[in-house]
Every structure is written in structure tokens, then in C-alpha cells.
Amino acid sequence: VQLVESGGGLVQPGGSLRLSCAASGFTFSRYVMSWYRQASGKERELVARIFSVGGSTNYADSAKGRFTISRDNAKNTVYLQMNSLKLDDTAVYYCNAHSWLGDYWGQGTQVTVSS
Length: 115
What we know:
mainly beta, 7-stranded mixed beta sheet, 4-stranded antiparallel beta sheet
């Protein structure tokens, strides 16, 4: 099982980034896919989640209206489009796959919002 995040980097406030998480080694379409983040000195928190059936989504209040999670089951990839980035969005962003079959994490990708 492997989850590989990409797309992080340094961006100015108000800018955008698109994170990707490429999955392998499990039946991607059966898993709820989520993005979490962990800022320095803080606990890991849920940012957004997309369900395996129907594609419904949940967002943290801090992400609503700015972030969009999506998935491409044909490519075994989940995305997080982040717009209007703020200084407080600086964190390591982690991809998570969850089902009754297991729970998997990626290694994380750093997002730094700074002027």
C-alpha cells in the first residue's frame, strides 16, 4: 500500500495550490479519502473528506469555500484544490485512505504560505 502526496510548496497569501495523492496497493474506489494537515506544534486535523460512494464531501470550517476535494477513481488519485491561501494554512498535508479494511497514510507534503 502506498499513498504519495505531491504539489506542496511555497505560495504567497491569496495564492493557490493543488495537492495530489496517488494511491496504489489497494482498491482505491472502496476507500474514503481524506486530507489532513498538521501545523508545527499542533495536532493533526481533518481538512476535507470525500466518500467512496456518491462522492459526497465534508470540509473543516477553515476550508469551506476555499478548498475543494475531488477524486479520480480511474487514476487512483485524490486531489485538494486550495485557493485563497492564508498564513494559517501553513502545515504538512497528509493523505489518508480509510475503510473497514484498513487505514493508510501518506508521508505528507509541506505547504508554506508566506509573503
